[in-house]
Amino acid sequence: MTYGTATAYSSTATGSATSHAPVVSFVNVSKHYGNLKAVDGLTLDLRQGETVALLGPNGAGKSTSLDMLLALRKPTSGKIEMFGSDPYHAVKSGRVGAMLQSGGLMPEVTVRELVTLVTTLQPKPEPVQTTFKRAGIAEFADQRVDRLSGGQTQRVRFALAICGKSELIVLDEPTTAMDVETRRLFWSSMKEEVAAGRTLLFATHYLEEADQAADRILVINRGRLLADGTPAEIKARAGAKRLSFKLDKLDEPFLLGLPGLVNLEVRHDFVQIQSMDSDATLYAVLDAGYRPTEIEVTSLGLEQAFLAITGEDDRANENEQAATATAGETI
Amino acid sequence: MAGTLALTRAELRRLFRNRRYFVFTVAFPVVLYLLIGKQVKGTAYGVQWGAYYMVAMATFGAFAGALTGNAQRISQEKKEGWIRQLRLTPLPANAYVIAKVLVSLVTTGTSIVIVLLLGHFYGGVHLPGWEWPAIGVTLWFGSTIFAALAVAVGYRFAPEQVQPVTLMLYFVFAILGGIWFPLNGVLGRIGQVTPTYEAIKIGTDVMGGASVPFGYPLGLVIWLGIFVGLATVAVRATAETV
Q1: What ipTM, to 2 d.p.?
Q2: pTM (whole model) above 0.90
Q3: DSSP output for chain B
């Protein structure tokens, strides 16, 4: 049995409140396909120099959000601004470099020809050799684009995203199809880009990557922003610690009332609690006269935090739908 | 504009590299002319057969060269996401289509020039000097009609659908237009509204010294308008799925 408390994860501004206008702002942006709300009232700001991970399960609305940001799709409602302009003009001004999963390459040309072509389209081009080095594509620069492996293709796509001196880099699942070594190389070159003052927004479902690379994580599920904060804050918000123990006589209402509790799971005599304050939770159990056994307190990784946040949202949604269905029947 | 030209140059490089495509679209009318241009005696559309067949094959190059390969490539590149990737660059939104049309003008222009040269030196067609460029330019302009149609088909249909669709259009415009042989009777009358027929007829009327009825050039402009309209609708309709 699982209990979810109705905790609202409100979005908070992170970082210092600089005087800079946001690089990107979404104001109440929605994208509906018929009845499906792919993106549902998304509001967020990205500031200069941030490395932001857009984290969510498949179908959460990550790609749709990036598509709208890059002027590939139009929001059903709401407003998106980039560098104080609409997405289309921001993209055409060359201030954004982007790599999408769905982006393809021109066939029948070599990697060198393709990268050179896209570089010449940039208002502030990087030297082609620099791009080759950063993207790690120099050794197959003279191969034809349509004869590359999946990982090589992904690196060429990345090269096209960084071949101009753009201020914002947008990457959708950048390390898909990359092996471990390529992934490492990729993130080290990304860190250089960000160190140069660029802003980076990337969508991923690799939690480890978000945890290591991002200084801010946006958790989205079913088109809505559920959490916004540093990796540490996200972990804390989901209940920083997991407390588990065995207890003979269970009193579920009592357990649900424990201080710091975020989530409770009970299986027979086994109790598992996610808690914002595991000390206070445990003291309350002891103070009530219980003597639990096999007590264990563990820190939650980002993965558990993510699952806790999205899982709770999904349960809340199911309850909501059940309630709507019931209400529907009574009418 | 510089970006659009850079893209056009890259497209041309691809074209020359893909010899099978280039040779096939340029060489097919040439080979047909060599095989048939001098074999038939008599006249067609009021001029010698050799002269008619020269204009017909030049029209063939203009129309097939603009339609067949382009529609297939556009559809394929849309499916593979290259059009989408280009939209992420500072290149203006219409650059892709403009580059495709410019490249198709190179293919069709080459084809038209070769067939006209062949008509003169091999087919023995002798014309007053100004008639050559008049015929050539008319056909070259006519090829943009089919470049627009290729854009419409390429955007509208998936790669596996493009082949049957272009094949159908190809036969309709080639046969009804009187490209492979002049048509008479009911089919001939129906065919008179096709742009391929209008293009050939402008050519043969110029050569035959007859005045060109105003309806033919007007017809070409109307066809161009229709296909540009279809192409615009197709491009806009797929703006969110590209």
Answers
A1: 0.88
A2: no
A3: -HHHHHHHHHHHHHHHH-HHHHHHHHHHHHHHHHHHTTT--SEETTEEHHHHHHHHHHHHHHHHHHHHHHHHHHHHHHHHTHHHHHHTSSS-TTHHHHHHHHHHHHHHHHHHHHHHHHHHHTS-----TTHHHHHHHHHHHHHHHHHHHHHHHHHHS-HHHHHHHHHHHHHIIIIITTSSS---HHHHHHHTTSHHHHHHHHHHHHHHTPPPPTHHHHHHHHHHHHHHHHHHHHHHHTTTT-
